[in-house]
């Protein structure tokens, strides 16, 4: 697999091609919504995307609110996971991917208006295995709204055809 074939490189290439264009960030968001429908459900707006760095915002609207009139906790978890994944994926070497195995999030303040999730994961020297990466969500005043810890299982992308080694039970 060449470096350009990795999921992170494709994401980063799309961002770099679209973001400078008039309406390019909107086009990139539409691409994300199509490729990752659940993530797209919160209408994320990518503000910054570089290898190992992602800043992604969402804006309060009725469909993201809970009964208290602020952004729903799960919408915040959604954008935190997306920021963590975008930053981590763009930093991975070719041939690797990540799968979320756990997410935990602490909430510190009601989320109102536009909030931004930022993640700057540092990949460990030994990439394979499970690793925790942090996303912090702040409001327009810079106050910390929530902090998510997202555990990613990192490993090689399976070969085409999905042939993974099968474990046989011994009699």
Outline the structure in words.
By secondary structure, this protein is α+β, with helices and mostly antiparallel strands. Helix content is 27%, strand content 32%. The chain contains four helices and six strands, in the order αααββαββββ. The chain has helices at residues 7-18, 24-35, 37-40, 73-91, and strands at residues 45-50, 53-59, 96-107, 114-119, 129-138, 144-156. It has a six-stranded antiparallel beta sheet. A hairpin with a 5-residue loop joins strand 5 (129-138) and strand 6 (144-156). Helix 1 packs antiparallel against helix 2 (24-35) and helix 1 (7-18) crosses helix 4 (73-91).
Helix and strand topology:
Blueprint: H1 7-18, H2 24-35, H3 37-40, E1 45-50, E2 53-59, H4 73-91, E3 96-107, E4 114-119, E5 129-138, E6 144-156
Antiparallel strand pairs: 1-2, 2-4, 3-6, 4-5, 5-6
Helix pairs in contact: 1-2, 1-4
